[in-house]
TrEMBL record:
It comes from the Eukaryota. Keywords: Exocytosis, Protein transport, Transport. This is Exocyst subunit Exo70 family protein. GO terms for biological process: exocytosis; protein transport. InterPro entries: Cullin_repeat-like_dom_sf (IPR016159), Exo70 (IPR004140), Exo70_C (IPR046364). It comes from Aegilops tauschii subsp. strangulata. GO terms for cellular component: exocyst. Belongs to the EXO70 family. The keyword DNA repair does not apply.
């Protein structure tokens, strides 16, 4: 699926998931109030009454699972972060709605998807770092100006800063008790270092030492200026 189409799908998925969880939370509340103080298995009753809503939730979670397991790409990272963010938002409600043994499968599926999204996104940081360092694009910048790879990587990093709060939550999944801000800084520093290493290699295409220096200076200046603006 093309990235634009996937983003549109995930936008709808996010909306439908939030609506479904809200409706199920309302049904759970009504069920608990109606059967309060009565010697009756209200959890089983809720499961039967909310059967349609549970089926919709199961379909949504299955779709999310398929997206998380599909082929990776640098653009897809932001889709996964959007999905992780909404799953984190509804987590507490999901744990209340599916608190009993009759709904344990749904609860585990929801929490499992959240962990899968976090794990996949976390691994994609490493993938992107390796992709940048090993980039072998043959684009020739004859006049020593900023290389397209530099622009692409910096734009990617800028987008990541729009997800700072989500990334902090994600890093907590793996680095309990540590400084999540420092973890984000480490990840971004590794990406920038990978870019620097690649540019060093690309500079060797210039036979003129002066042009080689100009190429490196222009790209490093672009990186520093962009970091100063963003960070």
């Amino acid at each position: 699926m093309q990235s634009d189409a996937l983003e549109a799908k995930i936008g709808k998925w996010t909306k439908y998931l939030q609506i479904t969880v809200k409706l199920l939370a309302g049904e759970r509340k009504i069920c608990d109030e109606v059967f309060e103080g009565i010697s009756f298995n209200k959890d089983q009753c809720f499961t039967e009454l909310a059967r349609t809503g549970v089926a919709v939730a199961k379909t949504l979670l299955s779709f999310g699972d398929a997206v998380a397991k599909s082929k990776r790409s640098s653009e897809k990272l932001f889709v996964l972060l959007d999905m992780y963010e909404v799953m984190h938002e509804v987590r507490s409600e999901v744990e209340v709605i599916f608190q009993d043994s009759f709904c344990s499968e749904m609860r585990e599926a929801a929490l499992g998807l959240m962990k899968l999204l976090a794990q996949t996104a976390h691994e994609m940081f490493v993938d992107f770092e390796e992709l940048v360092e090993k980039d072998t694009s043959k684009t020739n910048v004859h006049d020593g100006t900023v290389h397209p790879l530099t622009i692409r990587v910096i734009n990617h990093v800028k987008f990541l800063f729009d997800y700072q709060s989500t990334l902090k939550l994600l890093f907590q999944e793996f680095e309990t008790g540590s400084d999540t801000e420092s973890q984000l800084a480490v990840v971004l520093t590794k990406i920038m270092q990978a870019l620097q290493n690649n540019l060093d290699g690309k500079s060797n295409q210039y036979k003129d030492p002066a042009l080689m220096s100009i190429f490196l200076a222009n790209n490093i200046h672009y990186m520093i200026r962009s970091q100063a603006y963003t960070w």
